[in-house]
Write a structure and sequence with these properties.
One of its GO terms (molecular function) is protein-disulfide reductase activity. This protein has a 5-stranded mixed sheet with strand order 1-3-2-4-5. The protein is an alpha/beta fold and 106 residues long. The longest helix is centred in the middle third of the chain and has 16 residues, at 31-46. Strand 4 and strand 5 form a beta hairpin. It is built from 4 helices and 5 strands; from the N terminus they run E-H-E-H-E-H-E-E-H.
C-alpha cells in the first residue's frame, strides 16, 4: 500500500530526492480516489524498482494541495528529480499510468 505522507515527509521523500515519484493527491471521501487505490497498488508492484508512489490527503495537507494547485481529486503529479513533470487528473487505467511512469523512468 502506498504510504500517506505529510508536508515534512513530502520535502524529504519528493523534493529532495532523485528519480521518478508519483504523488496521488486524494481525499478519503472521494469515490474515484478509492477506485484508484488498487490500480496504484498494481502499478507500484510492477514498477517497484523504478518508481516510488506516495499519497497526500488533501484534507490533512491543505497547504500542499494549494501549493500544487489541486482543484479536484484524484490528481496525480509525477515528479522527476524533485520537479513536477506531469499532472494527471481523474481516474486512470493501470496501462496509462505504467506507460507514463516508464517514459519518465527511462
Amino acid at each position: 500500500m502506498a504510504k500517506v505522507i505529510d508536508q515534512i515527509e513530502f520535502n524529504e521523500l519528493v523534493l529532495n530526492s532523485k528519480g521518478v515519484i508519483l504523488i496521488d493527491f486524494f481525499a478519503t471521501w472521494c469515490g474515484p480516489c478509492k477506485a484508484l487505490a488498487p490500480v496504484l497498488e498494481e502499478v507500484s508492484v510492477l514498477l517497484k524498482d523504478k518508481v516510488h508512489i506516495y499519497k497526500v490527503d488533501i484534507d490533512q495537507s491543505q497547504a500542499l494541495a494549494k501549493e500544487y494547485r489541486v482543484m479536484s481529486v484524484p490528481t496525480m503529479k509525477i515528479f522527476k528529480d524533485g520537479q513536477v513533470v506531469e499532472t494527471i487528473v481523474g481516474l486512470q487505467s493501470k496501462n496509462i499510468l505504467v506507460d507514463k511512469l516508464n517514459y519518465y523512468a527511462g
